Amino acid sequence: MLLTVENVQKTYATADGPFEVLRGVGLQLNAGETLALTGESGSGKSTLLHLIGGLDTPDQGRIILNGTDIAALDDNGRAELRRGTVGVVFQQFNLIPSLKVVDNIAFQARLAGRFDPIWAQTLADRMGLTAQLNKYPEQLSGGQQQRVAIARTLAPKPQLVLADEPTGNLDEETASIVMDLILELVAETGAGLLMVTHSQALAGRMQRRLHLRAGQIA
Amino acid sequence: MTRTTLHALLSHWWRSPLQLFTLLAGLALATALWSGVQAVNAEARASYSAAATTLDEGRYDRLLRRDGQPIDLEAYVALRRAGWLVSPVITGRLNNVRIVGVEPLTAPGSMGALEMADGADVERFLAGQGQMFASADVADRLPEFEVIISQNAAPNTAVTDIGIAQQILGRPGEIDSLVIAPNQPASQVDLQQIAPDLIRQQAQASTDVAQLTDSFHLNLTAFGLLSFAVGIFIVNGAIGLAFEQRRPVVRTLRALGVPLRRLVLLMAAELMFFAFIAGAVGVVLGYAIAALLLPDVAATLRGLYGADVSGTLQLRPSWWLSGLAIALGGTAVAAAGALWKLSRMPLLAGAQQRALAMAAGRRAWAQALGAGVLLAIYAILSVTAEGLIAGFTLLACLLVGAALALPFVLDRVLALASRGAKSVTSQWFWADTRQQLPGLSLALMALLLAMAANVGVSTMVSSFRTTFTGFLEQRLTSELYINTADPAQAAAFVAYATPRVDAVLPIMFTQITIADQPTEIYGTRDHATYRENWKMLEGAAGHWDTTFAGDTIIINEQLARRAGLSIGDPVSVQGRQMPIAGIYGDYGNPIGQAIIGEHLFETLYPSITPDRFGLRIDPAKAPDFVAELTRDTDVSAAQVINQAGIKALSLEVFERTFTVTTALNILTLAVAGFAILMSLLTLAAMRVPQLAPAWAMGMTRAQLGRLELLRAVLLAMLTAVFALPLGLALAWALLSVVNVAAFGWKLPMYLFPLDYARLGVFALLAAALAALWPARRLARTPPADLLKVFSNER
Q: Relative to the CA of A82, which of A143, B220, B304, B776 has its CA 20 to 30 Å away?
């Protein structure tokens, strides 16, 4: 089993008092498997994704990735996890504006010490970014920027890809192309894919789907 | 990983060169201001310290010929044989260098330049083989001599053996003066018996002007600290903005797996590297500032000391190292907060926004609370502070407290103004100005401190000058002063001068102890000179009448403060109890002083007869009188001092002091203006999303540009209004607390409204000039850039 989430709980402090976002969530994901996580706004989808990606820590429960409980890791351990094991595709791209496209694609692989220039070039070609490599992110369209972000995520060949509304900022046609590329490349690398989405159409393309409601798996 | 992360961090500066320039320029200017002032101080102190340690600069009593001619070798030999521990000195000029010839075996005390010099061959020196000791620049002007370079050498002076000096000055066998060692044998043959044509000249002990010079340096040091504070605010602003703009990148880096600790370390290392570069530039700039200022300071100190003070600057390692240390330390202080925030920053954007909003609110309140606490401490200390540490603590509380309070005060004022806004544009303007305030607050704090420093230091220096001018009029009233050699000459002089001048005022004093304080007590003749010119800080009715009648005593402020004496308190002189009738300002005097009537003095100290006299005479007749006096009597020209000349010189000194502080004022203000410019430029990019909606809803870009300009001037004006009372409080603290703690006298404070008005106009001009470029850029922002704001909206 690549990923096991057991009874995860998370509460945020708000101006109106504590808000329980996740209330005992559990799920499992195998290597090479794709899973869609759907739910209303505020249902806790993104929070769960962030916890699995080691971007935040649960208040209670366990998140076991490749046999390691990431909830028990310290800041350095979680940073190592983000570098080497997990790749996150953010809705808002989160590219580094001062680096060229070619450097952005290579960035996470270099951090992880697993940079493969041939694989990086392959990713750039498959993403249709060959002509854009020497441009800065601000010179690209939203769809192009998201493709750069996906290439960056896949460049170190992570075992688990987490995607948070990866096509949320794209038009329907571009979204479809981007989604095809994600699924294709994830299948090639044998990584597991957990994608948060509002779109039932996109969710339908995953092998499994789970629905979150009020912080619990429905 | 380190290399990749560093590449990402540094790429930011490559893409934002203006921001990099802001950071480097802020650091460099802060360092330049600090190190420039410190360099001037250090150089001047080193110069006259070296001068003071050189023989013949007034540390010892000396014997001179009455007629000003060289002393015979025979007289010297006779004195030595009679047990007088004297050492011959000759001075002269060669290649515009002052040559001092000394006799190393008999010279008293330290040898100044000689004892510290590296590479000195004492044997060769003693053997009179031509070695000289001087600073490097002097050595360059004496290429034909073997000069040992000494860091301790007095400026523009070379010290050598007297034999060599006589030879190179073309004055073989001549002696200008004989320095008297401080410890002489208990019994000596009277000077008059051995060398009747010689007179003894008293050492220039710790003089009044020396104290004033210390005060002058204290002012400069205070200014240096203020400049540094202004610089720190600038650096803090630059670093804060740099971190603010890179916040999303930092978050991304962390999300991609860069450990927080490594990120913090890399950013700290990056800043230290920049600090080092900027610090080096700042030290060079500081050197330039110091080199520009130093001739004025040198002339000032030359005037004060009558000794050469180097007008050129040496690159002292301690100075440029301290400049670099200040740059690195200042950056560390300024960056500490930003790095702390970075280390506490939540990784997730959503949480970050919430946390930031909450943190900003908490910070504003904490800042206002901190300001309140510091100002309360200032209020308490202003009543209770005693001593230098308390004085400087008081200053720090005042300045930091006021700076921290500024954003809060401005926010309240803007909120008040927005209530009166009628039109939609003015409502938007006030609201937008309040929103801008956090980004500009550090630059405005720098402006506040710069203006307060201007008001405070100008007020202090001007008050100092006004007071000192009055003091000179009071103290140097007599047109001529005569030092007589002995009672016989004194009696002959009085007999000669009395019918020829308006008044002969004997000056006689002795050292006593009053209220356990060492005090010089003077017996003073009843004359209008004192009654009309000596101003009392506090005085009982008829204080001169009672004092001249021998019933009361008048003391100086130093004695009153140190002994806790006030009007009416009785003091004992020679067992005689007298109430204090007056306390007078005695600026520059390090010790206690007291005045009693002439007749009482003669009664209490019958053995003391006056050997110094003040002469009241029509100034036009003074030169003729001096010529006749030296012709008709044995009083030499060297014994006559024309105080009009000293007065003019002293006044010139303070004009120069004023020039130095004015130059520093302008520099500090210019740096504060630069801070505003840099803040506005850096904020400009962040402003586009705020301004684009206003543009989209019908405001023109030119209108927006004009409003930006107006906003900067308005904020500068409000800051100026706040800076005036702060500057006056600063001046008060310097004059009434720091000065009293440092020197024992309090200077009255005068106000100079025209100067303040002029400063206000300068500040507004600086702010307007600083805002002009960003406003112009805004007015010319391409519509496409403004539209991007909407196209990027999600």
A: A143
